[in-house]
Amino acid sequence: MSKNQGSRPRGSRAAERRLVPLSVWLCSDTTTETARAKDGPCAGEAICGRHRQAVGRELARHLIDACTRPGGVVADIFTTSETVLVAAAEMGRLGIGFVPRLPVAQHLVGRFRQELTAEQRAAVRLRPHGPHEMREALSGFEGKVDLLIAALPLHPEVGWAVGSRSTSCPSCRTEQPTLAMPQLGRFLEDARRALTPGGHLAVITTARHERGRLIDLAPGIIRRAAAAGLAYVQHVIAVRVPVEGDTLVVQAGPAELAQLRRAQSAELPPVVSVHADVCLFARPGGGAR
Question: Which end of the chain is more exposed for a tag (fewer CB within 10 A), N or C?
Answer without folding.
Answer: N
